Amino acid sequence: MNKTICLQKAIALLVLIQCCTAIAAQELSTKFGKVTNDELLMSSYNNDSTASAVVLYKKGRMLYEYTGNKFRLCYNIENKTKILKSDGTSYANVIIPYYDSNKNTMKEVVIDIDAFSYNLENGKEVKTKMKKEYIFKERVSDKYMQVKFSIPNVKAGSVIEYKYKVLSDFYYQLPTWVMQGELPVVYNEYDITIPEYFKFNMEMRGSDQIKTTDKSIPVTFNVQSGASYRAEPVYATARNIIFVGKNLPAIKDDSQVWCADDYKAQIIFELLGLDFPGSIYKPFTTTWEQIDELLLEDDEFGGLLKLKNPFKEEMKSMNLAQMSTKDKIAAIFCLLKKKIAWNENYALYGKEISKVIKTGSGSNADINFILMSMLREAGVACDPLVMSARDRGVLPYTHPSIQKLNTFVVAAQETDSTKVFLDGSITCGYLNVLPPILLVDRARLVSATNNQTKWFALNKVCESQVRALISATIMPDGSIVGERNTVYSGQFAGRHRKRMNAAKDSTAFITDLETEDDFKILQYQQDSKEDFNSQIREKISFTKQASATDEYIYINPMVFKHISTNPYMQEKRKLPVEMPYPYSLRISNSLTIPEGYQVEELPKQVQFSMSDEGGTCRYLVQVVENRILMTYIFNMNRIFFGVEEYDLLKEFWATIVNKNNEMIVLKKKTL
């Protein structure tokens, strides 16, 4: 028997070795125009069986050219992709954006586009070249164009490849090279040559996945000089860096992170300065103070900070002088929101404010500029707080960047030492109750005065909490009849209002509540539904059916669960987990035991937490005379958990779910 087991293991090991050898020996080419038989025969990607396509290789080569007595950047891009499934054929549709503005003499052009598809037909390779008529150009904005093309004869099993060149006058801006995308990548190479005249700062993300070769090489530029404009060679030294990534996993959009792009392996460059022979070193590194100045000097930003209040007459009848500063800010915001609705666009700059006022619709930036004009009219100091919205990626930590700024909120001075924060996109929130997409950990105050705190964290500016108190009686048939009083604060109040507003009517809203928690509402009351404040109070008389037999009643002491299933069930996770905001729950229940019954089983009382108190929970159940008393206190204190913490996070929530699903067993007393 032992010999049989050993033989089976030996056979299994041999098969595994053969499979690994086959994978390792699989011939893949990184040369444009060469497609191997293994590439054509490939039917799945071993490292990701779910992939609809896989990038066999992607190459980028960037170098400086000197032409017309000026430098320009030249990018050569190559891509070869294997289409594995029919839904992967969309990757044969390629879009290349580039800068082209009539208001700027500096431009970019895309040239030398070439593309092919390869298929196996009757055992033979069939190569199809893309014709020029498949290439289109279209304008997408006043500053950007894009080239679009579709590679022909593409289906599941095809190999596609394409290449193109970009010539850019923006020699001082090296675009970020992103090595990962929504498809897995077998091989990615970026070869960049930077002459000694250009000094760049370099940031590598996912550096553990990138192999780097860095060396000095000689370069030659032909420079025209003298009256004859004869070209003469100029010899220089350049830094040649080659970045290589192999077998890079796909990074797709993920519901548990705000911006998956933040976590892709990538190389980011920032120009530090220019150092030409015979010239004084010219620094290019921008400080945040310089960015403040640029914004304040911009007509569509700083110019709008001087906007005159368009609703001055309407504000005269508001009796603002009798209000506290906080109430004054809230009243002005409510007036503005009645005048102008948010068009669901986030922006950094204002556009045609007069048109916004006329149409009654604008971006959050448009509304914010008008709000600041109204607040200043009322004597409330305020400033813009600029940021990158959470779904647009984090601000870089290594260097300031005006390009990464994409929106702002209003910081209004409530007292000498405190500010409150508002935004034109608020529809169901309150002061400091901003939409979660704006709850960033770094936002910068833009002000002409330098004696103020400049950086603010918005992810903890409001307390979001649910406090619930249930008093109920358990009936012999297992029904629970009682009353629930709930106070929703902060983000929970906003969510509750949004849910009410989305319902067709009050009947539909109540039906939705009943369906979600499987109970019957006998009477419903609430206040502050329409009010602009941070809380909603709710009172519900209800009946809810528990499981019962002739002898036993099975009761969940939570009555209304915090959560039923674990949201973190992945076996292995590639990305961190980002929560929308910190929050807490406080639930206190008092359940009267029916006469003639006694408690046979009671859940254990527990108190547990994650490391660094990232999440904590207290679950207390006890019997006092004829009542079951339950206290549940939950706190989510942190909103970011790294990949290395995922198993702990999953375990923590598994315990939460288990406690939420535990039952009390009541047994009928014997006579």
UniProtKB/TrEMBL annotation:
Q: Which organism is this entry from?
A: Bacteroides graminisolvens
Q: Does the keyword Signal apply?
A: yes
Domain DUF3857, by residue range, is: 76-213
* Record bears the keyword Signal: yes
Q: What is this protein called?
A: DUF3857 domain-containing protein
Look up the signal peptide feature and give its range.
1-24
Q: Which UniProt keywords apply?
A: Signal
Its lineage opens with: Bacteria, Pseudomonadati, Bacteroidota, Bacteroidia, Bacteroidales
Pfam families, alphabetized: DUF3857
